[in-house]
Write a structure and sequence with these properties.
- The protein has one domain.
- Helix content is about 25%, strand content about 25%.
- The protein has 3 helices and 6 strands.
- It has helices spanning about 1-10, 25-35, 70-75; strands at about 45-50, 55, 65-70, 80-85, 90-95, 100-105.
- The protein has a 6-stranded antiparallel sheet with strand order 3-2-1-4-5-6.
- β4 and β5 (about 90-95) form a beta hairpin.
- About 30% of the residues are buried.
- The model has no long low-confidence stretch (mean pLDDT about 80).
Length: about 120
Amino acid sequence: MRAAAEIQYSDSGDWNTICHAGTQSGDMWREIHSKNFNNLTSPTVNVCASGDVSFIGYPGGSVGGERSLDTEMDSYGGTWAVAVELSNDNWFCIDSSGAAAEFTTRTIGYYGNADRTCG
């Protein structure tokens, strides 16, 4: 997904739409969610956040619409992060800073002034 996001960045100059359906990276995230949503326990959600929006993958497999993020945090699409829950109840997170690691909690948020970095 990181490679797809970088290619998208080189085309558009930002990461504002990497979570959107119809983009290579956004479709990858949806595919990941569709394969692992059984790991989620309500109210836990998988998250893809970029620019000023996030998308949420719910238990049961549905993907929620855009959630607004604080534009003051990243109005230029300079950061993105994705977190998905693993079968061991840990979280795997990747972000635009190059982080790719497993954590015991989801380290990114999905609304308001949510952090868009892992750890």
